[in-house]
Design a protein that fits this description.
Blueprint lengths: L5 H9 L5 H9 L16 E7 L7 H5 L8 H22 L27 E11 L9 E12 L6 E3 L21 E2 L5 H5 L1 H4 E5 L2 E7 L7 E12 L6 E11 L9 E4 L7 H9 L2 E5 L9 E5 L8 E4 L1 E2 L7 E3 L1 E6 L2 E2 L11 E3 L6 E3 L1 H14 L5 E2 L10 E2 L12 E5 L4 E3 L6 E2 L2 E2 L1 E3 L7 E3 L1 H4 L3 E5 L4 E5 L4
Parallel strand pairs: 3-10, 4-9, 18-27, 19-26
Antiparallel strand pairs: 1-2, 1-12, 2-3, 2-8, 4-10, 5-8, 6-7, 7-8, 8-9, 11-12, 11-28, 13-29, 14-15, 15-18, 16-17, 16-22, 20-21, 22-23, 24-25, 28-29
Length: 468
């Protein structure tokens, strides 16, 4: 199939009014529509997916200016904060050992949401509805406003910025006063109680308040009214959707995304809320960094027989995270000599973290073998931050071919990583945890170009190589 532009698809799907800006955008991003990919699953509802700061990103054409990208040093620091947050939640719940409860491994950390992490997966959805006319007796409505949201598989409460909001953004603000289907959640309702101590805020005027705290700063959070409205993801049916309507989005200064679409395993997430309509499954394919190919996001069940499949592991006290178990890693077909016990803690799948974290025992073996295969290239100093430690100088190299890396999962199924996920800024795109007992993190660099299926009902995670 030929992929077309995300905004153009939304206009075709929903009949949203066009504008000169939209027309200009469609022309300026025509190059992103000329690539073919494997067709997304036919069951469910899907939308195009693109990287937040990539060449197919939509918002930059509306602003007419290049989006500021963080330095590599800042990116790596923020990436470590993300990983520290996941490890800390597991440690505080008693689900993981070997994790320091005192705080981040990064000294003097940046606030987690000072900017969104570089090149995260982003989709556009339609939120809310507006009356077609004031005298429409049947109270029919049309779709609401397009919202650009970051996909997050390691959080539970979706939220968007709502008008009035002091922070500027590219998207039209979702304005609850203009949506005929907006309904704040009452304080005494089961939906409000479901937020629990982790996400609940105060009660204001009888309306339930939520608060999502960002890691490493008690003062940094998204907070506001917990509410319901109609949500459309792609051409499928609208669902009644609970989300945080944020009027106090502290320290998120990125104007090119309106919020976060949480896909974690908790009852508040989009994945859980959409299950009655689409089934307990979703998948996505994140395009390679710098690629002009678009990915896709799918709500709905598909047969896991089409994928390299492995059991989905869950934490009893932290249902947010989806986990798998690696049994081994192979480099150019050579299985690393790593005891299976090193992988016992499993690995959490995270669409927002970039660099995959491995148990130190496994990482040391991977690094040694990788360096052997890359001996023809001169070594380069690692970047600041200490996260990446195996880097090369490819000056003058006509063609760089890193060794093939494969992940061997439980039940012996093997996933070959895309070559673009092996090197990152000319460095091996893996890093070590501090302890073998800490769960690994499979980041989006290693997931890119791979469709990742979360078959929650079937208890399976699936991978399909080369899907975007």
């Amino acid at each position: 199939m030929v992929v077309v532009l995300p905004l153009l698809l939304l206009l075709l799907f929903f009949g949203s009014p066009t504008s000169r800006a939209a027309d200009d955008h469609t022309r300026s991003h025509a190059a992103c529509s000329r690539h073919s990919v494997i067709s997304p699953p036919q069951h469910g509802s899907w939308v195009p997916l693109y990287r937040h700061l990539g060449p197919c990103s939509l918002p930059s054409s509306f602003t007419g200016a290049a989006k500021a990208k963080p330095s590599l040093a800042d990116l790596l620091r923020r990436d470590q904060l993300r990983v520290d947050h996941i490890h800390r939640r597991l440690s505080e719940s008693g689900e993981a050992v070997g994790v320091s409860k005192e705080g981040s491994s990064v000294k003097d950390p940046l606030r987690f949401e000072a900017a969104y992490l570089h090149d995260q997966p982003v989709i556009q959805v339609l939120l809310g509805s507006q009356p077609k006319s004031s005298d429409d007796q049947q109270q029919q409505s049309e779709v609401g406003v397009i919202q650009t949201v970051v996909l997050d598989t390691a959080s539970d409460v979706p939220w968007v910025r709502c008008a009035p909001c002091p922070i500027p953004q590219t998207d039209t603000f979702y304005d609850p006063t203009k949506s005929s289907t907006y309904d704040p959640v009452s304080c005494g309702s089961p939906a409000c109680a479901q937020l629990g101590r982790l996400y609940s805020g105060s009660c204001a005027n009888g309306h339930c308040q939520y608060r999502v705290r960002f890691p490493n700063s008690n003062a940094s959070s998204s907070s506001g009214t917990y509410a319901t409205d109609l949500l459309a993801v792609g051409p499928g049916a609208q669902i009644t959707f609970r989300f945080g309507c944020s009027h106090a989005d502290a320290d998120t200064n990125d104007a090119t995304a309106a919020g976060v679409m949480a896909l974690g395993g908790g009852p508040e997430s989009l994945a859980s809320q959409a299950a009655p309509t689409y089934g307990s499954a979703f998948s996505y394919c994140i395009p390679a960094t710098g690629s002009r190919r678009l990915g896709f996001f799918v709500l709905g069940g598909v047969s896991s027989s089409q994928y390299v499949a492995t059991p989905m592991l869950r934490y009893q006290r932290v249902p947010t995270f989806y986990r798998v178990r690696l049994l081994g890693i192979a480099v150019n077909g050579q299985l690393l000599n790593v005891t299976p016990s090193a992988f016992a803690a499993g690995a959490v799948l995270d669409a927002r973290a970039a660099v995959t974290r491995l148990p130190p025992t496994a990482y040391d073996a991977l690094r040694e073998t990788f360096r052997g295969w890359m001996a023809a290239y001169p070594a380069a100093p690692p970047p600041k931050g200490g996260l990446l430690d195996t880097c090369y100088d490819f000056t003058g190299a006509f063609f760089v071919v890193p060794p093939r890396i494969e992940l061997v999962f439980e039940k012996g199924n093997v996933l070959e990583l895309d070559r673009t996920g092996v090197l990152f800024h000319d460095c091996l795109a893996f890093a070590a945890n501090r302890d073998d007992r800490m769960p690994g993190i499979i980041g989006n660099l290693q997931q890119q170009t791979v469709e990742v299926l979360y078959d929650v009902a079937g208890g399976v995670v699936g991978f399909r190589h080369g899907a975007c």
